[in-house]
């Protein structure tokens, strides 16, 4: 079944109101950032009196953003349950809810008028001692008790179902009715939403919700405190200024950072890497010093992690010494190339070997090519074999 025309209007208005609230939140948040930057500049210039006055605008802006967030959540709830709300409001339950709100407003009005009349009677009929002879004080005590009694009549709902329409929907409606007069911005969509909810809950319910006098539904305490027109406390102002100064790197109050450093103390010497080597010598032996190798240039000095790594490596080498090449055996072995038609006698040439061979004498060279055991090496044997092939 498609939604009715009234439900469609309600949904369309909520879909316009929710993005509007989000846009206002972004706008106020950006304005708060600019004001915080200006406050940090005032604190850096030691204009504390001006900063304390202007920080109230930042606090008010943050509270307004919080109020808009809560109203946005209630609007999303109404958007999700718009069909349920209209089904209840334009049915039998909605009729009973409007009658119940009408009787509640009537009784509260009579009780308020009775309290005024009793107060006037007490003032006019008081004795010379200041006491009432007609029992006006007793009447004043009876009236709130009458107002607190459960409603009776054909239009009342049972005690098991104490909600008007729905518990969550009633709370959203009461919050919107209460916040409309105190909302930080004037929104046309919010006014239209208030009118639409007034058609569903009745004018009596709307009047009671504006003063937070609905019997079973109350405005949340968080929204009440946020919409309260009251200057911020001194402690809140101090907290805002301290956080702003901390965020922008401004020292406020003056001397607070120094006291904090004195309480915490200095860092241990093993965690300080950028201290010059000569700085430890002028400390008079306050810090423990370890013998270090003198370096010619500051850039060649290793840092703390490299020194620790080198010490760990030396300890491991002492525990398990590395295995070197066997005695009398070269660590590098090169296989001689095979003879080819263009080079029947291939030889392995090592860079620098020809120069060393030219400088050395033949006797010394032949002796150097034999090892300590008197066995010629592979190159010597290859040369001798080539000489034998050349001879006829």
UniProtKB/TrEMBL annotation:
Residues 118-127, 291-303, 364-374 have a biased composition (Polar residues). It comes from the Eukaryota. It holds the Pfam family Ist1. GO terms for biological process: protein transport. Residues 274-283, 380-392 have a biased composition (Basic and acidic residues). Residues 110-130, 260-392 are annotated as: Disordered. Belongs to the IST1 family. This is Uncharacterized protein. It comes from Penicillium canariense.
């Amino acid at each position: 079944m498609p939604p009715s025309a009234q439900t469609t209007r309600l949904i369309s208005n909520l879909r316009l109101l929710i993005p509007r609230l989000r846009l206002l939140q972004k706008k106020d948040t950006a304005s708060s950032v600019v004001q915080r930057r200006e406050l940090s500049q005032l604190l850096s210039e030691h204009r504390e009196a001006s900063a304390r006055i202007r920080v109230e605008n930042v606090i008010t802006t943050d509270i307004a953003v919080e109020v808009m967030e809560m109203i946005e959540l209630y609007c999303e709830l109404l958007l999700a349950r718009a069909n349920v709300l209209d089904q209840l409001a334009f049915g039998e339950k909605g009729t009973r809810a409007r009658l119940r709100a009408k009787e509640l407003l009537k009784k509260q009005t009579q009780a308020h008028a009775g309290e005024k009349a009793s107060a006037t009677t007490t003032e006019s009929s008081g004795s010379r001692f200041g006491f009432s002879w007609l029992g006006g004080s007793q009447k004043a005590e009876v009236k709130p008790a009458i107002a607190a009694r459960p409603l009776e009549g054909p239009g009342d709902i049972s005690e098991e179902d104490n909600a008007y329409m729905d518990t969550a929907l009633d709370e959203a409606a009461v919050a919107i009715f209460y916040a409309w007069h105190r909302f930080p911005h004037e929104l046309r969509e919010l006014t239209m939403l208030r009118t639409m909810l007034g058609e569903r809950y009745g004018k009596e319910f709307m009047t009671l919700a504006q003063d937070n006098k609905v019997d079973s539904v109350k405005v949340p305490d968080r929204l009440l405190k946020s919409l309260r027109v009251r200057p911020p406390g001194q402690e809140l102002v101090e907290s805002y200024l301290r956080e702003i100064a901390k965020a922008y790197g401004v020292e406020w109050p003056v001397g607070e950072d120094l006291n904090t450093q004195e309480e915490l103390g200095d860092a241990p010497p093993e965690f300080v890497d950028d201290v010059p080597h000569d700085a430890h010598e002028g400390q008079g032996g306050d810090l423990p010093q370890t013998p270090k190798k003198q370096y010619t240039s500051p850039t060649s000095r290793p840092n703390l992690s490299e020194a620790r790594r080198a010490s760990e490596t030396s300890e491991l080498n002492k525990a398990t010494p590395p295995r070197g090449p066997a005695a009398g055996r070269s660590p590098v072995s090169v296989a001689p190339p095979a003879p080819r038609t263009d080079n029947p006698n291939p030889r392995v040439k090592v860079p620098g070997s020809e120069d060393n061979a030219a400088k050395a004498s033949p006797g010394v060279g032949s002796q150097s090519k034999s090892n300590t055991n008197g066995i010629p090496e592979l190159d010597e044997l290859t040369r001798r074999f080539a000489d034998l092939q050349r001879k006829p």
